[in-house]
Amino acid sequence: MTQGGGGARFSVRLAGEVKAVALNPLRGLARHAPSPVNGVFAIGGRMLSDVAHTFEKHGDDLDDWDPDYIRQTLPFLKATFGNYFRGEVRGLENIPAEGPALLVGNHSGGIMIADTFVFAIGFYDHFGPERRFHQLAHNLAARGPNMGIIRSYGTLAASHENARAAFEKGAPVLVYPGGDYETFRPSWQSDKIAFGGRQGFIRLALEQGVPIIPVVAVGGQETALFLTRGQRVAKAIKLDKLARVKVLPVSIGPPYGINLLDLPGRLPLPAKITVKVLEPIDLKETFGPNPQPQKIYNRVTGQMQGALKGLQEERSLPLVG
């Protein structure tokens, strides 16, 4: 009976795997193709599967993080982003090898956030695919029908609940307090930290007792010519209530020229992306048992502004770096 039951379970599992490959042949190719070509098939298979389950994916499931998928696709993505954006990540040793931490980054590049990909690839290349890591993103990105790719790398819909759940699993979490306000700032303000006074990340770090690790990146605002945030227009048409978006930005970039909120679709220019991880800030050790959020905000943004200015001064030419 035991052998029969095991055989039955094996048959059901095998039938399920055969059915999955039949419905999504790219996954089968990903299992047998050599690296890094298998990464291409794995990405395509995840996109195909995600389209089929558009309404089942919500961006709140930490189990979407998939170390096997990361291991399979990392060589391909590393080669792609490494060559196209010449991505460079410094200071990864400032992130603890284990345990939770709140990584606080500046947001650049519109919706096509190349610096996030560069950083995530650098993180997993440094720590390995088994080191759990989550990034919080706008609902439009985290819940999108083809964003199973980034969800597999740890992306979650931005909420304190998702951050807390990730901390409970011992994961560092990357947040972008500036959100759409910062990522669509004009290109001539690429050397500015623009959080807009948002301090929710500080309350989260204090509540959870985790250190803040600033992360600064330069180059993203050169992937297009960003002209204006379009905040007044967005407010006038109530875009914030419709899609939680408070900007309606205009940018110039290929292939269509003028883009509105990065639509109808923009190909990021191949700007060199440089990311730098700063030293951790233990909030209670630095600011005492009753830290004031405004002082923490000024300290974090001040350090990030200084580091960002330093990275900007290293660049000789736009795009070239």
Question: In a few lines, what is going on in this structure?
Answer:
The protein is an alpha/beta fold and 321 residues long.
Question: Overall pLDDT, averaged?
Answer: 86
**CATH class descriptor name of the domain at 60-223 and 268-314:** Alpha Beta
Largest sheet: 7 strands, mixed
Radius of gyration over alpha carbons? 21 Å
CATH superfamily of the domain at 60-223 and 268-314: Glycerol-3-phosphate (1)-acyltransferase
Q: Which blocks of ≥5 consecutive residues have pLDDT under 50?
A: 1-23
Distance between the termini: 67 Å
Protein architecture, described:
The protein has 321 residues and is of the alpha/beta class. The chain has a domain at 60-223 and 268-314: 3-Layer(aba) Sandwich (Glycerol-3-phosphate (1)-acyltransferase), CATH 3.40.1130.10. The chain has helices at residues 2-23, 25-32, 37-52, 67-84, 114-127, 139-142, 148-152, 160-168, 179-183, 200-208, 231-236, 239-243, 283-287, 293-314, and strands at residues 88-90, 101-105, 134-137, 155-157, 172-175, 212-218, 225-228, 250-253, 257-260, 274-277. The chain is globular, with a radius of gyration of 21 Å. The termini are far apart.
